[in-house]
Fold:
Amino acid sequence: MVEKPTIWIIDTSILLNVLDVPQYNQNRDEVLRNFRLRIKRVDTFLLPFTSILETGNHIAHINNDGQRLQFAEKLKKTVSDSINGDAPWKTLRFPEHKDLIEWMDSFPYSAQKRVGLGDHVIIKQWEEQCKRFRAYVVKIWALDNHLQGYECNH
Structure:
């Protein structure tokens, strides 16, 4: 049986390690090793708006002014490259009003399970990609335990 190609939804924890953001890069070697393997397998990577936003928030809280600027520039370039097709991942479409209404409608149930809004949105976007790309296995790539194990279409 032929194995289906894989799409990975990139969580903030992964993006922070790839960018090597101080205090959020403890798993960088492992993340980069997995990233190289998955690139070699020709997997697809999708970068959600939530991961971009949360990464920017973490960068804005770096205490060192020079590092804060350095990593803000690095994130800017990473996102620009992604939008222009010059990065190993593509940005997911940005949310529209109807998306926000739907996500907010179901958020209280996630909050009851201690799932924050950012992770809730990533899960919702994963669900959307599962429906959209039935010929692919779609997974969330995260270091956070509560986001691991999301896989569909296998």
User: Anything to note?
Assistant: The chain has a mean pLDDT of 94. The first strand starts at residue 6 and ends at 10.
